[in-house]
Amino acid sequence: MVYVVVQSDFDAVVRDVVTESVERDSFWVKVGSTKSYKKAIIAVQKDSGKLIFTSQDADIEFKKLLKNRYQIVLKNTPDKEKIIDLRCVSYHSKPMQREITSFDIIPSSEKDNVTLLALGDVEGKLKFAEINSQTEISDLNVIEEAHFADITKVKFFPSAKVLITVGLDYSAKIWSFPGGENPRTLRKQKGRITDVCIVGKGRNILTSSLDGSIIIWECGTSKDLYEFRRIKSLHDGVTVIKLRETDSKPHEDETENHINSHLFEAEGKICYSGHKSGTIAVWDLYSQTTLGEYSSLDGSPVSALILEDEYIYAGYENSFVRCWSYNNFSAPVWERQLFNSKSVGSDKIDTKVNDILYLSGEDKLVVSWSDSQLVAINSRNGEDSETYFGFDTSLRVNEIKKSGSEVYAAGKEGLFLNL
């Protein structure tokens, strides 16, 4: 993938020319690798009502397609001509002063056209808010020291009245929304807690840890019911977990397990866990048995994981995105490396895939990786689709979520929508 950087306010530059606030303006683009950029100044002006983009570099052509869609055409490349589609994001708000490390959104069960929002930051602050149909944010509550350090995960329960957070302080905490009461705090794991899954309506939850464990909890009693670990590597840190619901039914002998008397809505639930080794392990939640593993291909840790109807999509710290089939543990359907640091002679470039979101209607994966890259690739083959711009080049997008027709992304500089 070509590494592309565009002046963060370029869309505003274009808009000023369109509205005739100025007759002519310019912005810059950089195309290439992090070690070797080609930079061009793009001048923009109107001629007979039509936007004209003029590049000082004859090998870089810039076009406007639709309202927030643009295109860069690279000439004289090994492929003769390469087209890069750009989409400008809509900056929405900076609801917290510090970097947003995790957030979640859910439609309100009590108000029409209102979305509930919970955000955590790098200082352990937790904020509750709501977004109306005009995308205006109204604060509901702020908990200054919800955790002693970064809040790394925020997830609503299906009721939208309760949520759970995970912090760098080795704890998972349950909160009422929007009141902010904290009736349960879960602690047992000896390594940093990395992820959380809510089972059904939430009488049970799962937490994963870098100590290699996944724990099933009963929320009502704060009791830890069972601990999963990879038999082949008991301390292989778990980086991410996801649940998939299937139609499988438990055997009669499984229903007699004493643990299952404290498990609710666990039948047919399969847990997929990404590990530091690059392995993806598969577990049956109800029977507490291992179902198989997707082997590590290069040793790079799994950093993002999503489960869809047909495929598993996994992101890795070395910028690989792989598509796996539920029925084939041996080899991925396709793989794509977004950036190869070896090709530019540097091992200091952050290539980690931070998060992945699947857009089913478009066969598209929105992928956040590195400190400033937000791209879309085709979910069927991994080929380039679009690159997102309109934010500062130092922005790290930590998480991407969808609610209704809106897609949100949050990170260092705030909350975005309409990706």
E-strand count: 35
Helix- and strand-based class? Answer: mainly beta
Shape verdict:
globular
- Low-confidence sequence ranges: none
Which sequence of strands runs across the widest sheet?
5-6-7-32-31-30-29
Number of helices: 2
Span of the ends, CA to CA: 20 Å
Oligomer: single chain
Mean of all residue-level pLDDT scores: 88
Helix percent reads under 10%
Characterization of this structure:
It is built from 2 helices and 35 strands. Helix content is about 5%, strand content about 55%. With about 425 residues, the protein is mostly beta strands. It has helices at about 10-20, 250-255; strands spanning about 5, 25-30, 35-45, 50-55, 60-65, 70-75, 80-90, 90-95, 100-105, 115-120, 125-130, 135-145, 150-155, 160-165, 170-175, 185, 195-200, 205-210, 215-220, 225-230, 240-245, 270-275, 280-285, 290-295, 300-305, 310-315, 320-325, 335, 355-360, 365-370, 375-380, 385-390, 395-405, 405-410, 415. About 40% of the residues are buried.
Short descriptors:
2 helices; 3% helix; 419 residues; mainly beta; single chain
Question: Would you summarize the structure shown here?
Answer:
With 419 residues, the protein is mostly beta strands.
Topology:
Layout: E1 3-6, H1 10-18, E2 24-32, E3 37-47, E4 50-55, E5 60-66, E6 69-77, E7 80-88, E8 90-93, E9 100-107, E10 115-121, E11 126-131, E12 137-143, E13 151-156, E14 162-167, E15 172-176, E16 184-186, E17 193-199, E18 204-209, E19 214-218, E20 223-228, E21 238-245, H2 252-255, E22 269-275, E23 280-284, E24 289-294, E25 302-307, E26 311-316, E27 320-325, E28 334-337, E29 353-359, E30 364-369, E31 373-378, E32 384-389, E33 397-403, E34 406-411, E35 414-417
Parallel strand pairs: 7-32
Antiparallel strand pairs: 1-2, 2-3, 3-4, 5-6, 6-7, 8-35, 9-10, 10-11, 11-12, 13-14, 14-15, 15-16, 17-18, 18-19, 19-20, 21-22, 22-23, 23-24, 25-26, 26-27, 27-28, 29-30, 30-31, 31-32, 33-34, 34-35
